[in-house]
Each structure stands twice: as structure tokens, then as C-alpha cells.
Recover the amino acids of this structure.
């Protein structure tokens, strides 16, 4: 579905990604683990075309997309849910969904506000409420729903569980598995190991801008996690 | 004149009618800014062209009720398409560039359209045709109101309603509002931003053109409409609140009524009243009547990114070489070139003072001519009315301008980014209008003449040396300020207002002080300038002069201290070369546009990129 090869991305003169590579197969949930600043978000922004990588290759459904602007990447069926949610705060829930709306895609049942409100009942209760007045959990639901309105075949989720109450995180995990059943492939950045274990199929660990470890989620080694992800105090 | 109730009603309705065209321009400006973050200075030009095009279209269609309205709508469409052309051919190339450069490109467009209009439509003011069926007047309790005013009064709320529906009830409107909040996100959600920008540009330009066209029967068409309108539209946007369409209407009505009733109280300068209202609004609601905090304010002009370094040894040597060259110049060149060099030195000082605000201060001013021209007028008035000797006038002028800058600064530092820049432009326009309209004191359009230096300095060579000493001294003092704790604080204020606040620095006071310092040195330059020329005219305070200074700074590049000097030299020389040709504004506009497209870092900035390492400190 998605292949990233030898991606190098810079912010000004600072190199963030070093030969980043990863792959997501159709119908799979792949988790990117890593500390803050490891390069997860930059990887996602490079894939979407929000940040232009200096070199490397990104293939989506067999097509190179590394030079496409974000809106074209999106039109190909790759949806993006950013870390900070980025709800249009002055727009109502329904209007937020309208912005994400794209034409239906062959082979997928198109998402409509009505279908999404089944998935996220909280949103359906007050469809005309302004996005800026929603709670953090509701905003997270809305940002996912908004991306789904583009009928993506694959979505990229950047730390969806961050800052949410445990009960909301559990609900979110169920939603993600439900999307997998619908046939949506998912690439997900996480720092919450339990969440990753619950939803993921495979895992990559990002460290200093490149992949340093990869395995099936069930086989994730404790040492690798300790070494590259866990918070270390006093050198490391 | 008998002031009955009817008179006041008519006066009120006239104000409402005046508000209509202003509202259309201002909301177009606001829409374009919201989505594309472009402060489109050419918006006033669109308004002007709308009036001219409507004039010719209506004439072309000949008589008939349909012809008039068809001409007006068609003129608006034509202007909309001109806007699209400018967006597609020029602005689209610049979306990655800093906001200031885009602004400059639009100012280039202003100059180009000004000269093209003069060429196409002639310099004569045109009287608009009467609207068929609305040529008569209505009698309101004994006072007559043109019927067309009633039509104007109805048009604005109608457009307001249509825009509201468009923005809130259509997919296009939702996408526009989404892009106004977060372009990048709506791009990632599959919305083609380029196409959206173009459509918004069409609508905004269409509205400006429509504004110009509908006021034709009332105000006609003339070549001064562009800059007058843009200044008023800025005031409307600032008073109403950036991005708020109802706010723009409310503000336009306030400004319209002010003009209408202000004439009764204060016939000389209605703009002063406009300023008072704006000042009151900004003190009470810094983001405008219906604006939301944050909208537009976060669009700071990123002027200087690189950290300023004190001059290296090699750079100091270069400076010394320049000094020697300046010293021996009178031996090498004739009087004419010497006068030009004097002018360059004064402009260099003025643009350095602007750089002082913009670069380290992070406060972009669109109204620096108020300080420069203020200095010139202060000196000229002192000489004219009090026979002050030159020495005293040159000393007092900067102090008076410093005071003016302190007052203007006091208001401006309440805002940031684009808002602040617009406010400086509005203030400068007010200063200009005072000088322009208050003929008995300032000589109005005829200016003040015979302001010559003292006997000892009347020789061109002596005056040259005097100018050089004071300008270079001024530039060095400004430079010195940048590397004092005050300068560091200024830069800190620019980089993070919040952090500066939280470590106990009074942000507003520092910025206000920076305004005053910049004002003092611009005033010094202006004060000397008037003696070098022997006269002063309102042009020294007008918007184009402000943009000359901005252009000098940008031409030189905002990342270096040498930039403003090089920019002043290059610009003054260039201006001298082309100002004798007939359509020099056209040429200048084209140069602006080309330079912005070709060198987004300015002259010295580009040199810096290429040879910067040569001049850098070795241990760096």
C-alpha cells in the first residue's frame, strides 16, 4: 500500500530524517513508536507532502507521491490526522466534515455524516456546535471523522491517544479496529505502548530520524523498547 | 443653511450611501487577506479601475436603464478578471516568500496601474453618468436627497447578505473559512488551495471593482482614488476587525457617517475625525469592533531571521574604505552628483531608522514618511514662521518628530503584525491630509519654499560634508543602539512577546521607545532634507514616500545592517535615472515586481548568501 524508501528531510539546515524507510501492507495497522523528537511527525508530514523531502521515494498504491502537494496525495486516498487535531474552530461539526469531503472511491462504501455519527455518537448529538467548543476527546473524534469524509484507503494518525482520558482512549482503540474491518489501512504514531499493543499488527521504532527496529507487535522486544523508547533519566 | 430635522436625516442617509462603496472595498480586502495572507495594496487601484471601466462601458452601451447596471456589473467582472490575472501571473509565484515581499509586489502593481490608468483614461477627472430612473431627488422634510443615494444605501446590506449566505451556506464558503483558519490542514484534507486562492481573489477584486463602479454617479473617477481608498479601506478593516464582514460594514457606516457629519463640524480635515474614532476603537477593542483576537495578529512580518552579528574586521575595513571615498568625493565629482549623494545619505539615514524598527524591532511601518516628512515640515515651519536658524531647526525637528512618533507609537504598539502596519499607514495618511488640507499654515499643495541653509553651510560641498557627518553619525548611533541591552530587548520583544512579558519587561514601553528613536532619526533626515532642497511639499509625507523607504530597506535586504544604506543608494540612483521619463511610475512598478520575483532576499541579502563567508569573522 505505502512504501517509504531512503527518505531524507531537512528543516532548514537541520536534517531530521536519515534514510527513513517503512512499509504498510493493505489492511494492516502499523505502529511507529519513538520518543518525542524522534522524527515521527516529520515522517508523516513528508509522506503527505506538507514538508518536501530532499531525497527519497514514497510510493502509494504503486505511484510515486513524493513530489505531490498535500491535496493531490489526499485525492489518491491517503488521509492524514495531525497530532494537534487542527479542528477548524470557527466551523461547526458538520462544516468541519464538509471540508474533508471528497468524491466516493470505487470499492469503498462512502462515508457520510450520518454514518460517521453512528461511529462517533457524541458528535451526532450536536452537529451544529462549533469545533472550538468541543472537548479534547470530541475534537480527536472529529478530526478522524473529518479525514474519513475523504473516503481514504489508508489513514495516517499522529499520536491519537495523546492527552485523552483513559476511557476515551479505549473508545478510540475500538474505533481504529473497526476502521481496519472496513478495509482501511492505518499508519499510526504512538508513545502509549498499551494502545500500540492493542491495535497494532506490526511495529517500527524510530530513533534519531531513522528506523532502528522492526517486528510484529507481539514480538516487540522489551530491550529494544527500553533502549529506544522508554524515558531514560541520567544519560543513555 | 437651515438645519432642520430633514437636513440631518439627509445627512445621515448620505453617510450611509458613502459607506456602501467603502464597505465593498474593505470586505474584498479582508477576504483576500484572510485566505491568502496578502495585504493587497492594489485593492484601491482595483476600485479606481472599476470606476473608469464602468464609465466607459456605460458610455459604450449608450443610453437605457439596462446599460447602466449592466455596465456596472460588467466593470466589476472585468476588475475581478484583472485581479485573477495578477494573482495567477504574479502573486502565485510568491506564496512561499515573506509577506512583505508579496506586499511589495502589490505596491508595484499600484504604480503600474496608476500609470496605465493615466495613459488609458487620461489625467482629467471624469464625471459619472446619472443612473437612469434614479437621476432625480427625494424630498425629505424640505431637504433633497439624490435618488441614487437610496440605491447605494440598499446595495451594501444586499451584498452583505449575499456574502453571508455565500460564506455560510455554500461548500465554497466553508472551504474559504477553513482555509482562513488553517491553510495547511485544509490542503491535507484534499482542498486545492491554489484554485481556492484564485477564486477568492476574483471575488475580492470583483467587490473592489463593484465599489468603484457604483460610486461613479456620485463621485466620478479620478487618479487619486487608488491611494485614498486603500488608506480608508485599511481604517475600515482595522476598526471593523480583520476578517469580519459585518464588522467591515459597521465600520464603513461609522466612517461614512463621520465624513458626512464631520464636514459640518470640521470641514478642513474629516480624516482627523476618522483617526480619532479609530484611536478610540483601538484603545477599547484592539482587534476591532467585531474582530476576534488573534485573527491577523499572528501574521507577523518575518523581517529578520538571521542573528545580527557585530561587524567583523574585514567589514569594518570595507566601511573605512567607504568613509575615505565619501571624504574625497567632492574632488572627484561635480555639483550635481554631490547633491545626489547628499540625498542618498539622507535617505540612507531615514531607511536605517525604518530598518531599526523593522529588523530588530520587528515592527513594520507603512507610514515612515510621516516621520521623514514630519521632520521636513517641522524644520520648514520653524524657518518660515519663526525665522529659526538652520542649526536650531535641525535640532528641534527630530525632537518634535520624536514626540509625534511617541504618540503614534503609543497607539500602534497595541497591535502587531499586519494590523500595526496598517495603522501606521493610516496615521501617515492623516499627517499627510493635515499638511495637504491645512493650506493657510502649510501651504497645502504649493508647499513651503525658500528654506535655505545658514550662510556658512550654503555651499554645496559644505552642506555635503554636514549631511555626511550627521547621517553617518545617525546611522552609527542607530547601529550602536542595536547592540546595547535596549537593542537586545527590542529583538527579544520581536521574537517572543509572551516570554518577554513573563520575564518582567514592559513590551509596549520598549516598542514605543523604539518608535520614538526611529522617529528622531527619520526626523533628522527630513529636517536636513528640506534644507538641501530649499522647499518641501506634501509628497514627502504621502504613501509612495513611505513605500520608497520600505523599498530601500527591502532592496538592501533586511538581514544585514548594510542593507538599508545600499538600498537607499541603489533606489535613489534608480529613481534619479527614471524620474525624467513620462511613465516613470510604470517603470518603477515593473522594477519592483521584477526585483521581488528575482531577488526575494534583496541586494545585500543576495551578496551575503554568496560572499557572506568572506566577510564573516574567522572564529565564527
Amino acid at each position: 500500500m505505502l512504501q517509504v524508501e531512503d527518505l531524507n528531510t531537512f528543516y532548514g539546515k537541520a536534517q531530521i530524517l536519515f534514510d527513513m524507510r517503512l512499509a504498510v501492507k493493505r489492511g494492516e495497522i502499523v505502529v511507529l513508536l519513538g520518543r518525542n523528537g524522534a522524527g515521527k511527525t516529520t515522517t508523516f508530514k513528508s509522506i503527505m507532502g506538507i514538508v518536501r523531502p530532499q531525497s527519497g521515494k514514497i510510493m502509494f498504491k504503486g505511484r510515486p507521491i513524493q513530489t505531490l502537494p498535500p491535496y493531490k496525495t489526499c485525492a489518491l486516498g491517503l488521509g492524514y490526522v495531525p497530532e494537534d487535531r487542527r479542528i477548524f474552530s470557527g466551523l461547526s461539526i458538520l462544516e468541519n466534515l464538509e471540508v474533508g469531503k471528497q468524491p466516493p472511491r470505487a470499492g469503498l462504501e462512502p462515508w457520510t455524516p450520518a454514518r460517521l455519527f453512528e461511529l462517533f455518537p457524541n458528535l451526532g448529538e450536536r452537529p451544529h456546535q462549533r469545533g472550538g467548543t468541543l472537548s479534547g476527546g470530541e475534537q480527536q473524534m472529529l478530526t478522524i471523522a473529518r479525514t474519513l469524509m475523504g473516503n481514504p484507503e489508508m489513514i495516517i494518525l499522529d499520536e491519537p491517544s495523546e492527552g485523552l482520558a483513559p476511557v476515551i482512549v479505549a473508545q478510540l482503540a475500538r474505533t481504529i479496529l473497526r476502521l481496519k474491518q472496513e478495509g482501511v489501512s492505518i499508519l499510526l504514531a504512538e508513545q502509549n505502548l498499551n494502545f500500540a499493543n492493542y491495535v497494532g499488527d506490526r511495529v517500527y521504532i524510530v530513533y534519531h530520524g531513522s528506523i532502528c527496529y522492526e517486528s510484529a507487535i507481539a514480538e516487540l522486544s522489551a530491550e529494544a523498547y527500553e533502549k529506544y523508547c522508554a524515558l531514560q533519566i541520567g544519560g543513555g | 443653511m437651515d438645519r432642520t430635522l430633514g437636513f440631518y436625516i439627509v445627512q445621515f442617509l448620505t453617510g450611509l450611501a458613502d459607506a456602501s462603496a467603502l464597505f465593498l472595498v474593505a470586505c474584498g480586502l479582508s477576504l483576500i487577506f484572510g485566505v491568502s495572507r496578502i495585504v493587497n495594496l492594489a485593492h484601491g487601484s482595483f476600485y479606481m479601475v472599476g470606476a473608469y471601466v464602468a464609465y466607459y462601458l456605460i458610455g459604450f452601451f449608450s443610453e437605457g436603464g439596462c446599460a447602466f447596471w449592466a455596465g456596472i456589473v460588467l466593470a466589476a467582472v472585468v476588475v475581478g478578471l484583472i485581479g485573477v490575472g495578477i494573482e495567477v501571473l504574479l502573486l502565485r509565484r510568491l506564496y512561499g516568500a515573506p509577506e512583505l515581499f508579496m506586499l511589495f509586489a502589490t505596491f508595484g502593481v499600484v504604480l503600474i496601474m496608476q500609470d496605465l490608468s493615466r495613459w488609458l483614461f487620461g489625467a482629467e477627472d471624469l464625471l459619472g453618468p446619472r443612473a437612469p430612473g434614479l437621476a432625480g431627488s427625494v424630498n425629505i422634510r424640505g431637504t433633497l436627497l439624490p435618488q441614487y443615494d437610496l440605491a447605494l444605501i440598499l446595495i451594501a446590506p444586499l451584498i452583505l447578505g449575499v456574502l453571508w449566505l455565500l460564506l455560510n451556506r455554500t461548500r465554497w464558503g466553508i472551504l474559504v473559512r477553513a482555509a482562513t483558519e488553517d491553510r495547511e490542514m485544509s490542503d491535507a484534507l484534499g482542498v486545492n488551495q491554489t484554485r481556492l486562492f484564485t477564486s477568492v481573489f476574483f471575488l475580492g477584486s470583483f467587490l473592489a471593482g463593484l465599489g468603484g463602479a457604483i460610486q461613479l454617479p456620485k463621485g466620478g473617477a479620478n487618479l487619486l482614488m487608488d491611494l485614498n481608498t486603500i488608506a480608508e479601506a485599511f481604517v475600515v478593516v482595522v476598526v471593523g476587525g480583520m476578517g469580519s464582514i459585518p464588522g467591515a460594514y459597521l465600520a464603513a457606516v461609522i466612517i461614512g457617517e463621520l465624513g458626512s457629519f464631520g464636514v459640518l463640524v470640521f470641514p478642513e480635515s474629516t480624516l482627523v475625525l476618522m483617526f480619532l474614532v479609530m484611536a478610540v476603537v483601538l484603545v477599547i477593542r484592539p482587534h476591532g469592533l467585531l474582530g476576534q483576537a488573534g485573527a491577523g495578529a499572528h501574521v507577523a512580518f518575518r523581517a529578520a531571521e538571521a542573528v545580527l552579528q557585530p561587524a567583523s574586521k574585514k567589514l569594518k575595513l570595507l566601511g573605512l574604505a567607504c568613509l575615505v571615498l565619501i571624504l574625497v568625493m567632492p574632488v572627484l565629482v561635480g555639483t550635481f552628483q554631490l547633491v545626489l549623494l547628499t540625498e542618498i545619505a539622507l535617505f540612507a539615514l531615514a531607511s536605517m531608522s525604518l530598518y531599526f524598527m523593522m529588523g530588530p524591532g520587528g515592527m513594520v511601518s507603512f507610514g515612515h514618511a510621516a516621520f521623514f516628512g514630519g521632520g521636513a515640515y517641522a524644520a520648514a515651519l520653524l524657518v518660515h514662521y519663526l525665522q529659526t536658524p538652520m542649526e536650531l531647526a535641525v535640532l528641534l525637528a527630530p525632537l518634535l518628530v520624536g514626540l509625534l512618533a511617541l504618540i503614534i507609537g503609543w497607539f500602534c504598539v497595541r497591535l502587531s503584525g499586519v494590523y500595526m502596519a496598517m495603522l501606521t499607514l493610516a496615521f501617515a495618511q492623516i499627517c499627510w491630509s493635515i499638511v495637504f488640507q491645512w493650506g493657510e499654515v502649510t501651504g497645502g499643495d504649493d508647499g513651503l519654499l525658500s528654506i535655505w541653509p545658514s550662510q556658512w553651510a550654503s555651499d554645496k560641498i559644505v552642506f555635503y560634508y554636514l549631511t555626511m557627518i550627521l547621517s553617518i553619525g545617525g546611522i552609527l548611533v542607530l547601529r550602536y543602539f542595536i547592540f546595547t541591552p535596549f537593542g537586545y530587548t527590542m529583538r527579544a520583544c520581536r521574537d517572543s512577546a509572551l516570554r518577554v512579558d513573563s520575564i518582567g519587561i514592559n513590551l509596549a514601553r520598549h516598542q514605543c521607545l523604539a518608535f520614538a528613536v526611529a522617529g528622531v532619526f527619520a526626523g533628522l533626515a527630513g529636517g536636513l532634507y528640506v534644507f538641501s532642497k530649499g522647499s518641501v511639499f506634501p509628497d514627502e509625507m504621502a504613501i509612495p514616500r513611505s513605500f520608497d523607504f520600505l523599498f530601500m530597506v527591502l532592496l538592501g535586504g533586511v538581514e544585514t545592517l548594510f542593507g538599508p544604506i545600499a538600498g537607499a543608494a541603489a533606489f535613489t540612483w534608480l529613481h534619479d535615472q527614471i524620474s525624467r521619463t513620462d511613465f516613470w511610475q510604470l517603470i518603477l512598478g515593473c522594477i519592483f515586481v521584477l526585483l521581488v520575483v528575482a531577488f526575494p532576499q534583496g541586494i545585500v541579502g543576495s551578496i551575503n548568501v554568496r560572499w557572506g563567508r568572506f566577510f564573516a569573522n574567522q572564529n565564527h
